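[step 3/7] inverse_fold.run input=structure_tokens len=414
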């Protein structure tokens, strides 16, 4: 018989844990460092997020990176992140239509001395050297800085096609001009292939890729991480929560007995399930950092608390996460676009569209989902309605109902 569904989200948990006496170590952080304490850095006992080496760059980066879209009015979140040691900040020229970069620029204008302590990442979704120069100059201007620590080409899905010799020449020039210190790319699909190819190139400093409790157990991903480590490429994990592509999967997943037991088990140990999903990624020492969207102080403090907590997950904890991943596989697109997309017979970026759907249903960010979806060519949108996805569904290792979910994406996002 199904047990009563726990109704506590991460946010609810953090709010109520103090009064319930749960997770004392996690809550200690919040009580030690009030959100509006302007002199927090003067607290001698305040712990900061630990650091790890970032590939062969010689840089040490905090294991937690501030991602997502913050606005100029969120200056306090940036400030608190800085004080807690979350000094790896990730953005992109497209985030919030440039609002995120402008907010960082406002922060640096107010706290110019902090700039040299921040490991700053931004990205542009192009391989055209002229457009890269335009985007980089715009990002520098918006962020009130003369250099970017790590510059990414965003959404790389095919290294051979996108990281050309022209791009390498552009990278060498930008480094020589002192505009970027390191270079790499982000990968949301075909991550393993891109990582293997990048390891052979010899001029990639860092990669940010989808990596979580679902993906990290796959042999292809283990091999790809190993190849990058050997090549001295610094790795940042993103999409660590492995959010669902559609609402109904979230409810199926959370109502199973296994999922309920997993949640209860983590709660007893002072974790939320979300925190446990971060911990399991950090347990791989080859992952330098996790980039996490932290849109408010509550989530920032919960993530920092998880980073500071030294307890490791047990074998049972890992098994529970693995079981949950198996049970809910059809709700998560693993980004293996090379498997499904060639079977369709016409261009349909299945994994991209499922990712937009995840932004909508998993993150509740319909604006971003809709903006990205509506950048697709009209011909592609028509293909979604008429293409035959039966082969794609047959080959999909996650057994996703591709045709159904893509049509729902058209309905929800067009
Ligand atoms: S739909 Fe399936 S095969 Fe296609 S990218 Fe997603 S998980 Fe891979």
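[step 3/7] decode complete -> sequence:
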């Amino acid at each position: 018989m199904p047990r009563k569904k726990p109704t506590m989200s991460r946010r609810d948990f953090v709010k109520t844990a103090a009064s319930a006496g749960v997770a004392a170590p996690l809550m200690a952080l919040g009580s030690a460092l009030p959100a509006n304490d302007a002199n927090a850095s003067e607290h001698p006992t305040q712990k900061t997020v630990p650091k790890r080496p970032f590939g062969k760059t010689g840089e040490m980066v905090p294991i937690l990176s501030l991602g997502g879209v913050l606005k100029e009015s969120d200056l306090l979140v940036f400030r608190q992140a800085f004080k807690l040691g979350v000094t790896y900040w990730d953005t992109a020229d497209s985030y919030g239509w440039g609002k995120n970069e402008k907010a960082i620029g406002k922060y640096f204008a107010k706290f110019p001395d902090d700039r040299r302590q921040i490991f700053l990442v931004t990205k542009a979704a192009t391989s055209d050297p002229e457009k890269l120069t335009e985007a980089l100059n715009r990002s520098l201007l918006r962020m009130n800085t003369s250099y970017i620590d790590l510059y990414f080409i965003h959404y790389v899905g095919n290294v051979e096609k996108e990281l050309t010799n022209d791009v390498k020449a552009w990278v060498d020039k930008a480094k020589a001009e002192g505009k970027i210190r390191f270079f790499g790319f982000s990968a949301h699909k075909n991550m393993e292939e891109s990582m293997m190819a990048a390891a052979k190139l010899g001029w990639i400093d860092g990669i940010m890729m989808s990596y979580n409790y679902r993906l990290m157990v796959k042999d292809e991903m283990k091999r790809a991480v190993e190849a990058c480590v050997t090549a001295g490429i610094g790795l940042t994990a993103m999409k660590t929560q492995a959010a669902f592509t559609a609402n109904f999967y979230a409810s199926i997943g959370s109502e199973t007995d296994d999922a309920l037991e997993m949640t209860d088990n983590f709660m007893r140990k002072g974790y939320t399930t979300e925190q446990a999903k971060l911990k399991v990624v950090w347990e791989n020492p080859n992952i330098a950092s996790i980039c996490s969207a932290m849109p408010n102080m509550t989530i920032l403090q919960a993530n920092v608390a998880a980073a500071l907590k030294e307890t490791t997950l047990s074998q049972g904890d890992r098994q529970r996460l693995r079981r949950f991943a198996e049970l809910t596989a059809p709700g998560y697109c693993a980004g293996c676009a090379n498997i499904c997309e060639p079977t369709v017979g016409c261009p349909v970026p299945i994994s991209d569209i499922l990712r937009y759907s995840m932004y909508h249903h998993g993150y509740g960010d319909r604006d971003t989902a809709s903006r990205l979806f509506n950048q697709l060519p009209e011909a592609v949108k028509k293909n979604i309605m008429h293409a035959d996805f039966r082969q794609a569904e047959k080959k999909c290792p996650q057994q996703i109902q591709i045709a159904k979910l893509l049509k729902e994406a058209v309905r929800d996002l067009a």
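[step 4/7] annotate
The two ends are 40 Å apart (CA to CA).
The chain is about 50% helix and 10% strand.
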